[in-house]
Amino acid sequence: MSEPISLVIVPVDGSPSAQAAARHASLLARLLETPLQLLHVMPLNPAELSDIPANRQAEADHDRARRQDIAAEAFARARQALDPDLTQPPAEVILEDATFIRHPDRVILEHAARQPGCLLVLGARQLSEVGKFMQGSISNEVVHRARCPVTIVHAQAGPSDASRLGQVLVPVDGSPHCLKATALAGELARRADVPVELVFCRPDGLSASAEHADDSPSDEAFQRAREALGEVPRGIEEVVSEGKRVPEAIVARARHHAEAAPMVVMGRRGLGKWQSSLLGSVSHRVIDLAPCPVTVVA
């Protein structure tokens, strides 16, 4: 069973993707009836690179004042994108990245680790595969390393695209990490009063006769998922997808429901960072391709 969500955190930087993430985060906070926290990571320049001597007050540092102005603008833009039905105003938190080589993902992860029961919502940057490998992606790093659920909202999404939830899509395989994701999916479906679709992706190597047996892998996965979901008043549909690689099969179902404003909620495989980079990660591939927000549960 997944830990109940008690706080939704969204890092903001003033970008369009951060605004879309803020809108979706406020939707989730409203549905889950939890506080919303807007988070801005402010780089801290070394004193020798500042325009003032090191023994001067930080408040007199014009570079720092500029960074504070940027933070204020990021918060203002995020507030403009919030769900209009959000009842509780969000908290605003500024954290400083004091490293010379900027690692905002580390700051975000350290902050999230201090907040029990949190859910992170991030806007994804659009990088090429080479760019992700060479430069890294903050959203990919956070998804890979976070111990809390992480929702990724695509860069091309506008605030209106992230403003509703009409369908929850859950890939199932019967594994423990999948069942944790399924429990969260059930909670979201009940709160939003929307249906759930369970998707089992049949491996190419699994024979049709084995799949249609009384104890087929899909039947077992669906049964365990239903137990983890709990009651879903709007209904549960089971779909077996064949003939595609797992990420593409999941994305195909998300595209099938595109008009219904779906969200994918899935478990994360335990691959190491370099394994994910070299061998591929199902969750990262789904995040890259899906036309909707994707929530990954560790």
From TrEMBL:
<feature type="domain" description="UspA">
    <location>
        <begin position="167"/>
        <end position="297"/>
    </location>
</feature>
<dbReference type="Pfam" id="PF00582">
    <property type="entry name" value="Usp"/>
</dbReference>
<feature type="domain" description="UspA">
    <location>
        <begin position="8"/>
        <end position="154"/>
    </location>
</feature>
<dbReference type="InterPro" id="IPR006015">
    <property type="entry name" value="Universal_stress_UspA"/>
</dbReference>
<protein>
    <submittedName>
        <fullName>Universal stress protein</fullName>
    </submittedName>
</protein>
<comment type="similarity">
    <text>Belongs to the universal stress protein A family.</text>
</comment>
<dbReference type="InterPro" id="IPR014729">
    <property type="entry name" value="Rossmann-like_a/b/a_fold"/>
</dbReference>
<dbReference type="InterPro" id="IPR006016">
    <property type="entry name" value="UspA"/>
</dbReference>
